[in-house]
Structure formats: C-alpha cells, structure tokens
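Below sits the subject:
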Amino acid sequence: MKRTDGFVLKQINQIPYLLPYGQRIAEHRRGMRLNEAGVFLWNHLSQAGTRDELLTLFARHYEALPSEIPILARDMNAFLDELCTWGMLEDEKEPPCARHKLYLGGLSVDLNTPPELSIPQFDAFCAKKDNAPDFTIHIKSGSGLSCSPSGGQLLVCTEELFVIEQETEYHIRFPLAPQITECRLKKDGTRANLYVVPPFREPLLSDLFHAIRLLFLYRAQQSGRIAIHSASLYYREKTWLFAGSSGTGKSTHTNLWNAWFHTPVINGDLNLIGLLDGQPMVFGTPWCGTSGVFHTGKLPLGGIIHLKQNGTNECQPLTKDAQTLSLLYRTISPSWTGELMDRNLQLAASISEKIYNTRLLCTKTPEAAFFMRQQIDAFFSLKADDKKI
C-alpha cells in the first residue's frame, strides 16, 4: 500500500481532515473528514506494506481482544477502500485477472487483464511455451482518479501523449484516450501498469492496443530492437522494408510487387528489426496500421529501401552516415531522453552496416517495382561474386 502524494492531514477546529493541494487541487480532488481511527491508519500506512500488517498495528494500538479483531478488520478495510475510491491510496492488492501469455517480437510478454477484458489483436501471438516473462503488463480497472506521484520532469507533451519522468518509472498519459487514466512504466522495461475505467468495449480496446504498442516498443528497445515505419515484403528468402513519409507509396510499392511477382507482404505499416546472433532480423508484431497484414515469427532482413516520389525510377546511393540517419528518421521507438535517442542511433548504425540500404526515387507505376527488383537481384549477384573472390 502507498499513500498518494498531494494530500495532507490538517486540523480544523480540532477536527482532522485530509486535504488536497497542488496538482490534486487542479484535479478537483475532494477532502475527507477523519475520526481518531482514520488518523491512526493514515499515519501508519507508510509502516505497513500490506493490509494484514496494518491490521496488526491497528489491533495492538487499541489492545483489541481476539474476538474484536474481525470487527476492526471490517472497519479498517472499509476505510482503506474509501481511500482507494477517492484516489488517496494505491493498494497493491492484486484483483482477479486473466493471464495472457504472448510471444511478441521475439520476447515473452505476460498481459494480465480484468477477466472480462480481451484484446483480439493479440490472439495470433499466444505463446506455445510458458517462459519466464521478459515484460509484464497489468491492466487494472480503477475509478479514474490518479494515484501517481504529481512531481517529476515533463519529457513529452503533445495532444496525444504526456510522458513524465519519475525516479524509477515513467508516468504516461494518453489525452485522446479518456478511459486510460494513466500508465506507469518501469525504467528497466520489466513491468508496466495501465489503469483504465470500464466498460471494456470499443473505443477502449482500440486505445489499449495502441497504448500497449508504446510500452512494448520501449521494452523491445531495451533488447536491441527498433520499430521502423515501413511496409515490408518477402523476396529471395529475405525481408525488404520500404520506408518513407506518409504518401510516398510504401503500400503501393509492396502491393505492386505482390501483384506482379506474387511476393508475400509481411507487414503493412510497422516493422520491428534488430540483430539476432549478429544477423539482421525482422520480428513479428500485431501492429500493422490499417493494412491488417502482419506475421508472427522472425525473418531475415535483406535491406531497407527509402522511397521518394520522382518522375523516373532510379536508385540514389547513400553514404554511411546518410544510411544511419535515414533509418533513424523512420524509427518510432521512444526517444524521450537523450539516452533513448542515442540507443536508437546506435541500433540504427549497427543494423545499417549489415544490410542493403538505399534511396529509391520512383514513380507509383509497375515499372518502379520491376526496376527495384532488378536492383535487388544485382545486389545478390554482387554478393555472390564477392564470395567467389
């Protein structure tokens, strides 16, 4: 159990009250009048890690007989539940939950939800083995009142995302997702708590799916994987990413390949890449934009083609620094701090040096697909010649 900061115990005409201040005033929090027992319990919350420990202190203070302890327990729990309801106390008591074992992006993820909540986009990623989790996410049903610390350093502030850095965790809010009241993400990437307000139906399910993406990409980043805004296809036993800003033809290009060469589309919007035993790989995740196309395993990465609209089709070689920067600019993994940005940069550099990385100036016609296929075939031929030498 943990008292929420932003509340102070004060006497008004010798009557004790819990009163909000600071951010809690801005949140329009209410105060609460306490009796003598309430004052004792509030003052001793920091000494007790659990309700049982607090009950022991409570009973000892009032010299309760064994027959009186159930009555004390009833009154104490009613008081603590009221504190939780009004966001004055965070109780670590875990409610009943459904445990979903997932295998996402090459990582084992435990997703714990209220029993009545299910996110169907994760169904294809149910784990076949019960491995120790690399990342644990708890979705908790609450009252909508924040219990998180009110201080910290504001790192990101947009209409879609607030990120505040605390000592050991990030406090995250999603302003456009009103049923997600807050998120706590451990800095070591091992655990995240999402606090939500029922009912568990659209649009909450969609908001949760996208909020979990942000949390997962942070954890994947800790394991040497970065997410690239790109469409991908499978050709010559390799995965090829087509990256570019919105409207440059990523989906158009991969669909042309699929139509003319019958190459499978791997993911229509986001690809998670990294090195596995020194080899560049693409790891399957369910996040694929509106395309609905994704894969669940891992595939070798052949290269990244950076698209730019043009009147003709031609490849423009990139210097090594431009290869790294072009990849970095398409990364959507968190870069809330200089350290996180540097992690993305180092990953982009280590991956770039092991793959085919070029810019394609192209039209949106079938000729662009034919041209790029010729370039990839020539790349394979060149590699084969290098091996002969």
User: Anything to note?
Assistant: The first helix runs from residue 23 to 26. The two ends are 67 Å apart (CA to CA).
